[in-house]
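User: quick one - fold this with guanosine-5'-triphosphate bound?
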Amino acid sequence: MLVGDSGVGKTCLLVRFKDGAFLAGSFISTVGIDFRNKVLDIDGVKVKLQIWDTAGQERFRSVTHAYYRDAHALLLLYDVTNKTSFDNIQAWLTEIHEYAQQDVVLMLLGNKADATHDRVVRREDGERLAKEFGVPFMETSARSGLNVELAFTAVAKELKHRSTKEPSEKFQLQEYVNKEMKGAGCCRA
Ligand SMILES: Nc1nc2c(ncn2[C@@H]2O[C@H](COP(=O)(O)OP(=O)(O)OP(=O)(O)O)[C@@H](O)[C@H]2O)c(=O)[nH]1
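Assistant: Sure. Structure tokens for the protein plus guanosine-5'-triphosphate:
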């Protein structure tokens, strides 16, 4: 499930992942909730992801709350060009702790990493916040495609691992992400 403030790029991230395209042009806010499926090949096993795209607007919050409980994984987004969306992450985490399953897979994404000139949240700030809350982190761009595939693949790997291995053999999500990250504007967390 994709969560985060309105306008951070949740729908664009999902469309980039699903269709490999960027939705340029005017911003159409999601109403309520929407979903798309995508099948990934994870280490030779087909994993079907059902990805729920939530509306970031406050007025749809009660709709979103109802879906948290069934989510196996949450991608929590902020927009690196929007300080408020970053400042709101703590409130999102509180909400997640209140409504989501305790063992939900969670990843923090700083989206719009392509927008160099408009950036107001440094990568280090994202890294610090993620570390503080013990959440894996990376920057993404729905526009350029930076780390989009990686974010979803990492989550799928973690979910597959959980469903097939002993819980004691923990899959190191952040380690995997660090190892796999490449390209401009993204470095190790
Ligand atoms: N530069 C840049 N713009 C982006 C990126 N992702 C999204 N946008 C723009 O940000 C705006 C909002 O994108 P959406 O994907 O609709 O945002 P959302 O989080 O789904 O918003 P809600 O549905 O209201 O919750 C659009 O104008 C997009 O074109 C990105 O990676 N880079």
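One thing worth noting: The pocket of guanosine-5'-triphosphate is lined by residues 6-12, 23, 27, 29-30, 55-57, 111-112, 114-115, 141-143 (CB under 6 Å).
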